[in-house]
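Why do we care about 3D structure at all? Because function follows from shape, and shape follows, mostly, from sequence. That is the central idea of this module. The next example makes it concrete: a single protein chain, its amino acid sequence, and then its structure expressed as tokens.
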Amino acid sequence: MSRARRPGWAGALVASAVAATPFACLWVLQMRSADDPLTVQARLDMAIWMAVFGTPWMIAAWLLWRAWWRRAGARLSELDGPARLLATAAATLPADRRDWGTAMTAELTQVQDRAARWRFAAGGARAAVFPPGGDLAVVGVAGALAVAATAAAALAAGAVVPAGRVFALTFVGLLGGLATLAVARSRRVGWAGPGPAVAGLALAGIAACVVATTWYLVEYPSYHRTHPPTIGVSLPPVTAVVLAVALAGCLCLALRPPRWLLPNRHAGRFGVAMATTLAVGFVLVSRMGLGGVGGWDGGLMGYLLAAPLVVVLPGSLAAAAVGRSSRTGLWACAWAVALGSPLLIAAWLAEAPRWYRQVGGLLLDGEGGIGVGGNLGDAIWWTLLLLALWAVPLGVLGAAGGSAGARRLRRGPGRR
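And the structure:
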């Protein structure tokens, strides 16, 4: 291996090791936190499950690192700290301001003093993220309205839905902060949306998720457990913050996505199709389980594990093949996860009461002895964790496979 290629391979190994570390730590934590001593078979079973989830992430991290290294990593590795900072900030600029980023990079080469280079790069990065020339009065008004809306949401939730006060405060506060930032930048960098299909599906999913969550908090602010006999809170503070961050992030992506997500129309279309399929499939499998069809009457855990394999993996592969680029598959996976998360949570919360009435247990695994309010935490955590830990690496693998197939087709059957 040549000396020039060694950093790329070393970085790929490090990326794979970093991707595997959380799963190894989770296995150790589970072994130490077990109430009773675990047998060798139980330890092996948990290790197999960690390998099932960790291996795709290791391969995905390897592929992502190699792709980034070929495209920009080798060049960035030759730059010093100030140049990397400025290059990173310039990469966030829209198309109509890229010339400014190029000019700033060229000017940095003329600065020789180390401290002066850092000051110049920091100033350029600040100007790239917060371009000068905005109307501070408008930004101030937007910030004041955001603070007022957050306070009003907290007061209204405290009076109407006390169990949802943390969620309302966090969600409205995040939206107000993002709106203020958008106003601060809108007059300089412009605005472009991802299209009506993506934005409409995101808004519908978020609205359905908020409505379903509010209904649960009104009807079931807490729930009873029989093993052990305790009373749990349907939406604890940490879960409420996680849900608020996820929904606010999805809304921000749908209304004002980063510029690298915008030009790829195939990615948005495939992302919408995959997100819709995940949600519709969830409802169909739930109804099949209630009808005793297909062996789904034990809960929908199996669907959550199988759906990314049959939807996200081939969908990302097809998107990369159609777009003839791994980026298309990656962005399609990103849209599928962002749009599918609120849709799946809303579908989960809509189906759970029906399961509780007919089966007498939770939608996840049919477990009894737990009140229907326990479905709220399951819907949030299992949806977000499985999409992040399982669907994302499968989407990366699909994108890599689709782009590799497209390259072979372009080269022809007789060329390598």
